[in-house]
Design brief:
Layout: H1 2-32, E1 36-37, H2 40-60, H3 63-84, E2 89-90, H4 94-123
Parallel strand pairs: 1-2
C-alpha cells in the first residue's frame, strides 16, 4: 500500500519540476518581450472555464457535462479578455512554440503512463 503513495509522490514531483522549468522559461521570454503571445487570453479563459465547469459538474453529478459548460464559459471569458487586451497581443516566438510542443508531449507521456499503470493494475 505504501509503494502506491511513493509512486504518486514521485509523479507529483516530476510534474511539478517540469511545470516549474516551463514557467521559468516562459518568464524569461516575458522579460525580453512585451505583451502576451497570440492565444494567451483564450488559454487563460479556458483554464478558468474548465475549473468552473468541474465545480458545476460535481454539483450536477455529471462532470462531463460540467466540463462542456465550463469550456463554453471559458471561450467567452477568453474571447472577451482577448478583445479587451488586443493591443498587447504579439506573435508567438519560436521558443514559445517549442515550449508548447514540449508541454504537449509531456502531457501525452503522462497520460500514456497513467493508462499503462491502470492496465497493469486492473487488467493483469
Amino acid at each position: 500500500m505504501t509503494y502506491k503513495i511513493y509512486i504518486i509522490l514521485i509523479m507529483v514531483l516530476v510534474v511539478g519540476a517540469f511545470a516549474l522549468i516551463q514557467i521559468r522559461k516562459q518568464r524569461k521570454i516575458q522579460k525580453i518581450l512585451t505583451g502576451h503571445p497570440k492565444g494567451y487570453w483564450m488559454e487563460q479563459g479556458l483554464g478558468v472555464g474548465v475549473a468552473i465547469g468541474v465545480g458545476i459538474g460535481v454539483a450536477l453529478n455529471n462532470v462531463a457535462m460540467g466540463i462542456a459548460i465550463g469550456v463554453a464559459i471559458g471561450v467567452a471569458i477568453g474571447s472577451g479578455n482577448g478583445k479587451k487586451h488586443k493591443d498587447e497581443i504579439r506573435p508567438i516566438t519560436d521558443e514559445e512554440k517549442k515550449l508548447k510542443k514540449q508541454s504537449a508531449l509531456f502531457l501525452i507521456g503522462m497520460i500514456l503512463l497513467g493508462v499503462i499503470v491502470f492496465l497493469i493494475r486492473f487488467c493483469f
